[in-house]
């Protein structure tokens, strides 16, 4: 059986899933680390530089001493070839301790449900947990994902796929692994303004940059949950799946977003 | 060189720090797991049953399917002997995925600074981060410790050892690894009421149960930071260090708590 997985840990390259971390490893003991995750291929790695910048920004915020690393694209290409993959998902992790962090690249297959989710969409449940206005790690992708895991498990308990997370006053923030967009009946888009309290998504940023060229507009503004109307459609973005429609919210079927395929095509090209 | 460390992972026992986890391990990728940490010895493991109960309670909250495990005391004794330790610290972790969790015991030396911290005390800095009233994992010891790490790094940046964490309205909650007690000039004690928003410490509970027998009292109540007075002393509890005085708060020297040795002795006996 072939495992299409490969990793690079501080320069040590291997195919497969060999055990690399002890039970006393600080990254495992405390969730002390940061990561980026994105779709990659031998052809193109869109947004790769933006992911590298964001990891450096997050590292500075978490006081990680980050030396210049290797060329990310070259490492990922090497791992794709080793794993015998044309395309896949890459995760780049910076593992604690902060004074002497380790850089880890992993490459594996794209998620099995990627095409299905793009086509069929995602069912969301509004989490009963509210995001804090004052969480030092809320806008970072860190190895500490218990809040998100708890919200996702709550949502699954209600038959949904993922949780829609709100702020203390009901402001739309994000989903556990997605940024969120609303589409008005006139096709104009709205997305929550970055407040520092949720993830500044790379695909979110790329989409916002792409829209004017397509003759479309998106307003960034604070959007309250109770402003959502049945005639509005919702969709989500992340760097592995691209864009996916929201098909259900708290069990209610939603209007299907229009033109998602064209937006996704723009991101992929 | 001898490593006084040993581990038990789903029944697989070993001495040392062998690598046991791959780069694709869910516990490492997401901080998906729970743990307990306590001081143990071949003589006695005070509070062990309470730690086991708390782990089961936390597991239920995080939807971990937890089968009956081995006898904790027997496993820890085996690991202490394997590591050639009379006394040490044990950590019991429940690692994701939640549907099929793994149980991990580790044993290692007691922290090097244990005696020093009990004698000299700890310098605290009031964190600028406020704990959320609505965090599903705030009262759990989980592998996702980024919030605590960020607060601790902030405190260290101010020359302190650890952070004092407050709620949204300035209520005293806990430190990153400690519960907190205040001592009035008449030696009576106060500690924050458990609200579900911070850790229900085992040593905190054991101390509260012990006090009446020593003719001492402790009131559990909401205690605001601005109620603290220079004539009050502070001390901290956790299951590895026991009780330690707070020697400094935001750079100001504090009154030394009285009778801590006697309280600690009560916990240890």
What can you see in these coordinates?
The structure is a homodimer of 269-residue chains. Chain A folds into two domains: 103 residues, 2-Layer Sandwich (D-amino Acid Aminotransferase, Chain A, domain 1); 155 residues, D-amino Acid Aminotransferase, Chain A, domain 2 (Alpha-Beta Barrel), CATH 3.20.10. In chain A, strands 7, 8, 9, 10, 11, 12, 13, 14 and 15 form a nine-stranded mixed β-sheet that branches. Chain A has a five-stranded antiparallel β-sheet with strand order 2-1-6-5-4, with helices on one face. The mean pLDDT of chain A is 96. Chain A is α+β, with helices and mostly antiparallel strands and 269 residues long. The longest helix of chain A has 14 residues. Chain A has seven helices and 15 strands. Chains A and B meet through strand 3, helix 1, strand 6, strand 7 and helix 5 of A and strand 3, helix 1, strand 6, strand 7 and helix 5 of B.
């Amino acid at each position: 059986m072939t495992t299409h997985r490969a990793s690079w840990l501080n320069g040590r390259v291997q195919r497969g899933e060999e055990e690399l971390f002890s039970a006393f490893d600080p990254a495992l003991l405390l969730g002390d680390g940061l990561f980026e995750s994105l779709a990659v291929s031998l052809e193109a790695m869109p947004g790769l530089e933006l992911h590298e910048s964001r990891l450096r920004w997050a590292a500075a915020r978490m006081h990680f001493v980050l030396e210049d690393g290797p060329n990310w694209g070259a490492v990922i290409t090497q791992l794709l070839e080793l794993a015998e993959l044309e395309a896949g998902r890459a995760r780049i992790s910076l593992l604690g301790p902060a004074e002497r962090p380790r850089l880890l690249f992993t490459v594996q297959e794209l998620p099995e449900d990627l095409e299905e989710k793009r086509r069929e969409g995602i069912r969301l449940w509004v989490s009963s947990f509210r995001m804090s206005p004052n969480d030092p790690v809320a806008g970072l992708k860190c190895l500490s994902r218990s809040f998100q895991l708890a919200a996702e498990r709550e949502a699954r308990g209600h038959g949904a796929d993922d949780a829609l997370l709100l702020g203390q006053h009901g402001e739309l923030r994000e989903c556990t692994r997605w940024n969120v967009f609303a589409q008005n009946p006139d096709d104009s888009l709205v997305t929550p303004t970055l407040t520092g309290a949720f993830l500044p998504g790379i695909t979110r940023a790329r989409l916002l940059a792409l829209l004017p060229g397509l003759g479309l507009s998106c307003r960034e503004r604070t959007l309250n949950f109770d402003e959502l109307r049945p005639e509005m459609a919702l969709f989500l973005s992340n760097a592995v799946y691209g864009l996916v429609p929201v098909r259900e919210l708290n069990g209610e079927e939603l209007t299907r977003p229009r033109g998602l395929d064209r937006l996704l095509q723009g991101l992929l090209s």
